[in-house]
Amino acid sequence: MKILRGLLLVSSLAFCLTPSFAQQKTIAAKVEALLSKMTLDEKIGQLNQYNGDWAATGPVTKDVGNKLDAIKQGKVGSVLNIMGTNHTRTFQEAAMQSRLKIPLLFGQDVIHGYSITFPIPLAEAASWDLEAMERSARVAATESAAAGIHWTFAPMVDIARDPRWGRVMEGAGEDTYLGSLIAKARVKGFQGKGLGNIDAVMACVKHFAAYGAAVGGRDYNSVDMSKRALWETYLPPFKAALDAGAATFMNSFNDLNGTPATGSSYLQRDILKGKWGFKGFVVSDWNSIGEMIPHGFVKDNYEAAEVAIKAGNDMDMESRAYIGNLAKLVKDGKVNISLVNDAVRRVLTKKFEMGLFDDPYKFINPAREKATMNQPENIEAARDMGRKSIVLLKNEKQILPLSKDFKTIALIGPLGKAKWDLKGAWSTDVDPNENVVSIYEGIQKQAPNAKLLYAEGCKVTDSVSVDFTEAVETAKKADVVVMAVGENIFMTGEARSKANIHIPGVQEDLIKAIVATGKPVVVLLMAGRPMVFNWTAAHAPAIVYAWWLGSQMGNSVADVLFGNYNPAGKLPMTFPRSEGQIPIYYNYLNTGRPSQGDNDTFYRSSYIDLPNTPQYAFGYGLSYTTFGYSNISISKTTIKKTETLTVSFDLQNTGKVAGEEIAQLYIRDMVAQPLRPIKELKDFKKVMLAPGETKRITFIIDKEKLAFYNDSLERITQPGEFKVMIGAASNNIKLEKSFQLTN
Ligand code: BGC
Q: Model-level pTM?
């Protein structure tokens, strides 16, 4: 009974999605009352974030003294990398010994699951399933909130068109429209019914901004782009996350057009807090305030702190520039106290909204922590998210799904029995006993009557020729071969950019040797990025792109291999044929000499040694069934800017098994100033169809779908001809219509 009353009380204090006006007023009054009692040092303490006692996710600052003492002195407002109720309790108890007893905020990179690891975000994006992605973030939030965490540094919403960049695995891929919807879904998932609820964590949208466009795909590198590209391609997912109620933002390591993002008033004050009216707070990235010194933007931490606070960076993650310099900057008259007050207000407001002043230990309940982790329905959700994320790239002669009549299956490749790698980078590893299902175990469970043989063949990183005899002999004994090859866990993620994104080491040679046996071969590719694998694409009969799917990976993969689940994923990023094609993306401009094949030299905007087309295009992915697109109609052939247009078509399952298709709507503005891309994704529908079933699908095109930024950064539409394209992939348009837009 007592517990029930406690729960009711907690939920009555919690907010529905966003606090009401009355709740905001009450909190604002409490914040002002507290602020008026704070010394300057205590205020600066609230803006200081230290690394905790789990891992370091950046270069460690040495000799920082005793952190618990600093907390007791009110010098710390937040701690990151701290997990579990016993750790967080120790730190929160220290905060409760400070003069004003202001609770700490505990932050953590809960990027794709907490105790249960879900697929890496890029893999999840391949599902195009917004509800499933929201659910994945919900599970992560529920588990991490029960472990004392208040705040996740996710979602990462950086648009990324360069697969060399190791951090592509953390985002939603290359497309702004899809990325914006996913950003929203993830924020909703993390924040649940609203801050203050016991299972909601604050989202932190990152990295503001344009980090995904780092030159050469090298981490931490510079970005130079037009403001129009920034607004059109890179900012919309941030705005979408903000509209979904994201509580906080993180700035980024890169400079943007010569100004480090952390020191950019344009990004943080003019856009985020100004034009967009963001009321939450901005945290720096790890030491990104201090890193303005090696950038060459400021000469020391004193200047760095001044630039950062003026630019709108509220909290300092790990650079100690604020704690060491802000008080002096205020006393020297360089920084107006109102800037410090504004930043502190923003931080305190979130602490009030989270309910931490009512009960600083609200999220710290060991019994709840134990009861919440690894719930069977959440493990099932991870398995489902996993199979939804898989993309079937090739399936010649319908090798897949594997026949139940196969008596002997050979699993070959260095990742066949891997476990830890399957979790992918940025997994929390909170539970060392977490039961990760390997590919071997997944296959074994679903083919109990088949004999399962295994040969490693080579290591992921073997780079000299390896004797493949054992692997080849093993393949020869089997009716079918599944190859588990790709990257290891250390090959994508932060600071893991690669110049060579081919399947690592000699693994493609292993594929060649196994395909040469003439046995039916299914190549299962595992990676945190698009890889290059031309020989395999041309010669392997079946290819499944399985990314990193987390703890349930073996089960998710086996569900697809044995046809218990019909794959429906579509690529959220273009797969190049060669690193030389990068950056490569589907929504490019046509140029004045678009490639017309290789016959006319001067029309060859492609390379002389490669076509412009990718190996696999954005939006591509197969199913065990086939789909027919027909009977397109549009509601009008001319519309005014105030009107909408309806596009309809029939989608039919023309194969023999039930399956889902992700039908995609692309639009092209045929003549525009400035130029528009050859096509842009503007909508999609994921539709389940029984064999033979037909559904009429409808998309509504409104003004926003036709709008773009001009050089003055105004959002405009221009009259003229538009093409509507319906397709199964960006390079597989099935139906087309044109219409005119008038004023
Ligand atoms: C990363 C952030 C991350 C932070 C804290 C940084 O190195 O860029 O994405 O949230 O560390 O772990």
A: 0.97
